[in-house]
Amino acid sequence: MADKSFLNWPFFEDRHRELAERLEAWCAKNLPVDHHDVDAACRELVAKLGRDGWLKPTAVDTDNPGPLDVRTLCITRETLARYDGLADFAFAMQGLGTGALSLFGTPNQQQWLAKTRAGKAISAFALSEPRSGSDVANTEMTATHDGDSYILTGEKTWISNGGIADLYVVFARTGEAPGAKGISAFLVPGDAKGLGIAERLEVIAPHPLARLSFDQVRLPALALIGKPGDGFRIAMSVLDVFRSTVGAAALGFARRALDESIKRVAERKLFGAPMAELQMVQGHVADMALDVDAAALLVYRAAWTKDMGAARVTREAAMAKLFATDKAQDVIDKAVQLHGGDGVRKGHIVESLYREIRALRIYEGASDVQKVVIARQVMSAG
Q1: How far apart are CA 274 and CA 257, in angstroms?
Q2: Which cofactor does it need (predicted)?
């Protein structure tokens, strides 16, 4: 059983502790799902999570609007990730995909949110391009203003839920100014004419990913999210909310790796005694526990700071994302080592964790990019 003592930290309220308890019971009953058909598995997960109310925190409730609760998002991602990486993915993409609508959408655009929160529509966040991943300001896809319409032309790649999403939030160059100030955000239905799946992308931890093509996709002007040229600001605001939740998912993977390792070294005998009696093994376990707790402190500091009303948590979220994902990689690597041959056997839990964690150090801002963000924040504060 994973350590839950962190829930007694002052970052949390009783409602967060109660949520964690209910979600733990739900996960034990419903996860993991069969991953054989990843598209079907994601659809099933979104439907189940929506049916049972777990997707409600991913977007604004238009009947009772209020800010997104980042601590709830983080607790949910951490818990889901401990049980099933694909379940965490399904939950997270519902939030990231609709983040721009929650924060900047018009009432008409926000009509989608009732569907995504109920698990009746799947969302996606389409920002990366073949030549502009971390460098968002280098976006090449265009959105040409044509009367009362915009025409989108170009490509997006590494799009989570690409090919199965019902709606995409897409960022394209509208040209109000050079670089970051000339990008806008658009709401694009998944069945829009001219939107195609150029390629399905397979990665080491199977998730639905695709390269999308936009062949003169015509959208009404009402599809514009926010104002022309606001796209970069919108994208960064969304990432500011959800980046710390990536750290929470990594924390969930790391906790599971630590739990599996503690069980392994208690049960496995080496040289006539349990592995747990070896000082070197104890050293590994101590390092793992230290990294887990330190990551949790950074993740939930960032989430608490945002929930307390901070306009931006760029520094805190970058620190949480960087530290938690990098240290989760270290924790999981130690878990593989402690499991020996079983640790690299396909289908073993620590082997799957080893594949799951690697992408988290890349998406929503690679580790090296987070270092640049942190350095700039620290130096500008001086």
Answers
A1: 19
A2: FAD
Same domain, 350 and 234: yes
Residue type, 287: D
Instruction: State the angle between helix axes of 349-360 and 314-339 in degrees (0 to 180), rounded to the nearest 10.
Output: 150
Residues 131 and 113 reside in one and the same domain = no
| 189 preceded by a cis bond (ω within 30 of 0) | no
**pLDDT recorded at residue 1:** 64
Mark whether 364 is an active-site residue.
yes
Cis peptide before 32, with omega less than 30 degrees from 0? yes
Return the amino acid letter for 153: T
Scanning the structure block, which residue is given the tokens 């976006």? 139
- For residue 79, give every residue at least 6 positions away whose Cβ sits within 8 Å of its Cβ, in sequence order, or none: 20, 23, 24, 27, 252
Find out whether 115 and 77 touch, Cβ atoms under 8 Å.
Answer: no
Instruction: Give the predicted TM-score (pTM) of the model.
Output: 0.95
Domain harbouring 347, CATH code: 1.20.140.10
Residue 284 CA, distance from chain mean position:
28
Ranges of the chain with pLDDT below 70? 1, 382
| Residue span of the structural domain in which 343 resides | 230-378
The amino acid sitting at 216 is Q
Same domain for 298 and 333, yes or no, is yes
Query: What average pLDDT is seen over the chain?
Result: 96
